[in-house]
Design goal:
It is a single chain. Strand 2 (31-38), helix 2 (46-58) and strand 3 form a beta-alpha-beta unit. Helices cover 40% and strands 16% of the residues. The chain is an alpha+beta fold and 426 residues long. It starts with 7 loop residues before the first helix and ends with a helix.
Length: 426
């Protein structure tokens, strides 16, 4: 969602030396050197670096260099791989695996899985995103989703005993909080701009999925079609528009694109917003910021979040570059990265259900652990002529047009369905 600057360290590594030096090398003196590339800010990966250091200490003959290239740029990796270069192991967003698998940029992993499977392989999350053309191209590694972030004190002061568990309760509770006391606290904050990548995309889908709909789907014949009626889609639009008209959400949020925008996270931290939704990587530093400001924040599952498929499963996969000179050693590193030993220091949630049960999670973040096994990836939208990016743009723009009064919900719903149908036709 939010754009980050390129990692200066990674750029320096790749620009100062010849291009081939950005890949693993060796063996020299019997030592194999591998490069693992990841795209999160270095400030969020100190735990991963610690896990890599631990591997290197234990495996002097297989040394791993951690490289950061941020923001995520799957096209960059594709260009490098086509030039027989690039990192040995790459961190890949789940929705990007098929993009890299189709041109065979990644190494198929089925033989390794058969010979030496990772622990809990049969029970991994997000497995629907790593297969293409009958083969497995990456391993699910980390898992995340959105959980409801809330201020217990703000809820209690408005007479709300517990966080909402349904979308109807969320709207009612948020309105009640906004109306309570001096009105200094808004009930619910969320990014609702019409930009193509606006993070309103998440709750729109959550609401739709939890009410039995989906934007697109495959029919019994394997053909793609829209998965919701115009009437039902208009009802979804009316729900989110109602958050603004009732005062449950501030109208200023209609200009906000990202869930981590300062207008949202600072409002949560200082107590002027009671509820929102965030992934774990954003919540953890926010919780510390809130404590410094004298505010307590915690998490609950999203409305209907324990219903299978009602929330999204995001995260990262690990793929091996087809050009690596050391695929066997790379596979050993991939298995290590998927293990509980890595997640003992790495501050992400594992895509392995078994490992997820072993990770020590603060009480304030346990909602993520409860919700993740029920989440389902956006892989449900993959495989048609319509890209997720194009679907997202059609939806966000039309919802925003209703918020601003440019369209009725019925007209916007019809135009969304028309746009999706056109996109499905290619």
């Amino acid at each position: 969602m939010k754009l980050r600057k390129w990692s200066l360290a990674a750029l320096a590594t790749c620009l100062v030396v010849p291009l081939a030096a950005c890949s693993g090398s060796g063996p020299r003196n019997g030592v194999v050197k591998l490069v693992l590339r990841q795209f999160d800010p270095e400030s969020e990966t100190k735990g991963l670096a610690a896990a890599i250091d631990k591997w290197n200490d234990k495996h002097p003959k297989i040394q791993v260099e951690l490289e950061t290239l941020s923001p995520n740029n799957v096209q960059q990796f594709a260009r490098e791989a086509n030039a027989e270069d690039g990192p040995d192991i790459d961190t890949i967003g789940y929705s990007d695996v098929a993009f890299l698998a189709k041109p065979r940029i990644l190494l198929p992993l089925d033989d390794y899985i058969k010979r030496d499977p990772p622990a809990d392989y049969q029970d991994l999350l997000a497995k629907d995103t790593i297969s293409f053309d009958g083969k497995t191209w990456a391993m699910p590694w980390t898992a995340d989703t959105m959980a409801l972030v809330y201020n217990p004190k703000a809820l209690a002061e408005a007479g709300v005993d517990s966080p909402p568990t349904t979308w109807a309760e969320l709207a009612a509770d948020a309105k009640r909080i906004s109306s309570a006391g001096s009105g200094d606290t808004t009930g619910f904050c969320f990014p609702a701009s019409g930009s193509a990548t606006s993070a309103q995309w998440f709750p729109i889908n959550y609401y739709l999925w939890s009410h039995g709909g989906t934007l697109i789907e495959k029919d019994s014949s394997g053909n793609w079609r829209t998965g919701v009626s115009q009437k039902r889609l208009a009802e979804v639009i009316d729900y989110f528009t109602g958050l603004f008209s009732s005062g449950a959400a501030p109208k200023a949020d209609q200009a906000v694109q990202d869930y981590s925008d300062p207008s949202i996270v600072n409002s949560l931290a200082n107590g002027s917003c009671a509820m929102s939704y965030l992934p774990p990587s954003t919540f953890a530093p926010l919780e510390k910021q809130a404590k410094s400001a004298g505010t307590t924040l915690t998490t609950a599952v999203m409305p209907s979040g324990l219903t299978a498929g009602a929330t999204h499963l995001g995260g990262r996969a690990l793929g091996i570059n087809r050009n690596t000179a050391h695929p066997d050693q790379a596979w050993r590193v991939v298995k290590y990265l998927m293990s509980a030993e890595t997640f003992a220091t790495y501050g992400q949630f594992p895509a392995s259900k078994a490992t997820l049960r072993q990770v020590d999670v603060p009480a304030s973040q346990r909602a993520y652990v409860h919700q993740l096994p029920h989440a389902r990836s956006f892989g449900r939208y993959l495989g048609s002529e319509a890209t997720i990016a194009s679907i997202e743009q059609i939806v966000n723009q039309n919802f925003s047009a209703v918020y601003s009064g440019q369209k009725s919900s019925s007209k916007a719903a019809g135009q969304i369905l028309d746009g999706l149908t056109e996109a499905l036709e290619g």
